[in-house]
Amino acid sequence: MSEKLQDPSLISPSSKPRFRTVHRVVLPVDGDTDILPLYVDFNASQRVVEVTKRLKRAGALPAVVPPASTHQRSDFIVGRNSLRLPAFHRVSLGTYFNAFPASYWRKHTDVDSVRLTVNVDAEATIVVYRSSPRGTANRVDSVHSKAGGAITFDLPIGAFVDGGWYWFDLVAHSADVTLSSADWSVKEPEGFSPGTLTVAVTTYNKADYALRHMVTFAKDPGLLDVLDRLVITDQGTDKVRNQEGFADASAALGGKFKLVEQGNIGGSGGFARGMYEGAVKGESTYVMLLDDDVSIETEGVLRAVNFADFTRNPTIVGGHMFNLFERSVLHTFGEQIDTYRYFWGPATNTRESHDFAASNLRTSPWLHRRTDVDYNGWWMCLIPTSIVREIGLSFPVFIKWDDAEYGVRANKHGYSTVSLPGAAVWHMPWTEKDDTIDWQAYYHQRNRWVAAMVYSPYKRGGRMPLESIAVDIRHLLALRYSAVEIRIKALEDVLEGPDHLHRTIAHRLSDVRQIRSGFSDAQIKPDLLAFPPVRQGEKRIVPAEEPVRRTYGALRAAKGLLRQFTPVRPSAMQNPELAIPSMESRWWSLVELDSALVSASDGSGASWYRRDRKTFLSQLRRSIVLHRRLMANYDGLARDYQQAHPLVTGVDEWAKTFAAVSDDASEFSKD
């Protein structure tokens, strides 16, 4: 399928197709070998068979052969788009960032083929491969160029309905060869007009991260070409404008930068302001929501814009999330909503925390099946402004569920979300913290309930009410009274109805923190010597292991509930009975204890958990009463939230909130 292009003079201008580069081969230039496997694969290709249930039943499991380990050669890289390959070497560009995700283009665009152009300066062989949805590699074409130059392949994408990628390998012969550039391009349809972008970053006391974004965008000519404006919404006290280097970065961006300062109304409030600036006040085609504390692959931003330019209908295009601490690890490949539980989770047939250094793209069959998602996290998410203008701004929930709700809302209006391979950021994974037990527990509880009331197709939210009260009970058994107290507050607010959402968005966090401050399990001290020494009484206590069987777990939970009615051992109030690491601080580990020294999930210190019969009984009773009230009033509350939804996500209501937290409210005046 490689071809020699005709003499341009023989092609009339009206018949000559215009090609647009949508995916360039890029390379890291900082010498970081941790991320090199995401860009270049130095290992010999090997066929890996997916282990299926059928193979297991047949007893025909393939031999497990670990991928060949080779030294990562960052010295081969000579530029952002080029590498120097020594004689008699071979590398593959069948990698996360440099293979072409053909199946996504096949489903969401009218593009029927893609052109691969590879530029080399000496004798080389280019071998093109495609994969099937099962992950098997098929050799498509190859060209042996004795003199180098531009080598072009026109590749159809019609056979990628369920999955598959294109990529190429580069082979050097008796002399070194330089890959000066390679790109994937598609034909521009008649009347094609490329889109432009507003990037919206929300920050709260991470001013140095926000400044880094400014510098990154200012230094990348490709990004500046598509960028209308970078909007940073600063909601903290450590101001971005006070950072050293801010003036220079702002000047480098020129008129393409706007700093917004407002009171803290959370991620949903900050991103709503970014949507407002990009879709309501601006004229951009897209607004991209970007977390402040991420490291971005700038080519991914361009790929998201290019992909969105070619989709059949306006489409939300999100990026994947890599682990900021283990940089070759893909933390999540796609997100879906379990509507019966009304809870988010990994998309079907995906795996969390996949390490490309251990198993590259070519040897990971599951990565080749196209993954469809319900939403994309707002660590990196491009939204057409036409969608924003039609369905509204973010849900006013401060934090948690804003991104999931928006994806579900867009889908209800007929708009898809795509998590696009090759577009990604590095972000701290949520496995490094437990935000279900700190102040965010309030937002987890309230926002999940509100989202279920707006969208759940099941009567009274399906399984969610049962899970909600079960979480309260688990927290009570684990002596996390602060988490239960703010979850109770969340239920009270849900019962109040939708009017509280905008009214409380600016101050509910301080209320929640005030509530938590009265509980010892929420009081983290960095110095462990600030606590009495760990000391057990006469009864020896051994931390229990996680129940394997469901019946055994239910029995232990029942015994734990009964134990709450017994007196607390006096010695446990004088000294913690055990020290429990954060990763082991689950209800089954704490249910037999009257007190424990529990470390914080972020490693910043520890807190003293102490059993309190009075608090346990009070919180259990209040939780049951509130859950019963929610069930009794569910239909009416759901109707209220559904009817109010267009109002609370609308521009007018958000403008009132922006005016209330801004020093200058005049820009939100209708006059």
TrEMBL record:
SUPFAM superfamilies: Nucleotide-diphospho-sugar transferases. InterPro entries: GlfT2_C (IPR045699), GlfT2_N (IPR040492), Nucleotide-diphossugar_trans (IPR029044). Residues 74-185 form the Galactofuranosyltransferase GlfT2 N-terminal domain. The keyword Transferase applies. Residues 470-659 form the Galactofuranosyltransferase-2 C-terminal domain. Pathway: Cell wall biogenesis; cell wall polysaccharide biosynthesis. Keywords: Glycosyltransferase, Transferase. It comes from the Bacteria. Its EC number is 2.4.-.-. The keyword Metal-binding does not apply. GO terms for molecular function: glycosyltransferase activity. Belongs to the glycosyltransferase 2 family. This is Glycosyltransferase. It comes from Pseudarthrobacter humi. The lineage of its organism: Bacteria, Bacillati, Actinomycetota, Actinomycetes, Micrococcales.
